[in-house]
Amino acid sequence: MTKVNLKKIEDAVTMIIEAIGEDPTREGLLDTPKRVSKMYAEMFEGLHQDPKEHFKTVFNEEHEELVLVKDIPFFSMCEHHLVPFYGKAHVAYIPRDGKVTGLSKLARAVEVTARRPQLQERITSTIADDIMEMINPHGVYVVIEAEHMCMTMRGIKKPGAKTVTAVARGIYETDEIKRSEVLSFIRMK
């Protein structure tokens, strides 16, 4: 896969600065193309990583009950407007046959999945599907709450509005009691 082309980003940012009627040689804007290119390389580093890699290491533990990591902060870029959206992810699963993954691996998968041009719905599904594929738990439930700058800064201009997406896999698709249990833990402060 191609790595980020910093020079191309710098040239494009210079063109944007010119296109909006600004002077790219003005002192305050002089290094902006370089700064933006470095920022984009960082913000889109997930394009060059596979979130599944984080689930290759599993541990054997006699535990087949809920595992939940909640309030995982993330930042992503809306692929429709290339402006940020950010929020929290809550990732739950019920291990099968004693196969558990490291807790930090759940947070890392969120991070890698979010760091690319994205849709919130896709982040939610990708995380759930990757966990199901890689560690084969009884079930996975992923909830993401985010504020989208494309709704805050432009268009409808509704700061504070949150978008919530949820994906249920395995036992969570059919067992309303299990689904209610995980939702109650997510709401708990």
From TrEMBL:
Pfam families: GTP_cyclohydroI
Subunit structure: Homopolymer.
NCBIfam families from the UniProt entry: folE (TIGR00063), PRK09347.1-2 (NF006825), PRK09347.1-3 (NF006826)
E.C. numbers: 3.5.4.16
Protein name, entry field: GTP cyclohydrolase 1
Enzyme's top EC category: hydrolase
Recorded catalytic activity of this chain's protein: GTP + H2O = 7,8-dihydroneopterin 3'-triphosphate + formate + H(+)
Family: Belongs to the GTP cyclohydrolase I family.
Record GO terms (molecular function): GTP cyclohydrolase I activity
Binding site for Zn(2+): 78, 81, 150
Pathway membership: Cofactor biosynthesis; 7,8-dihydroneopterin triphosphate biosynthesis; 7,8-dihydroneopterin triphosphate from GTP: step 1/1
Gene (name only): folE
Gene3D superfamilies: 1.10.286.10, 3.30.1130.10
Superkingdom of the organism of origin: Bacteria
Domain GTP cyclohydrolase I intervals: 9-186
Keywords recorded for this protein, A-Z: GTP-binding, Hydrolase, Metal-binding, Nucleotide-binding, One-carbon metabolism, Zinc
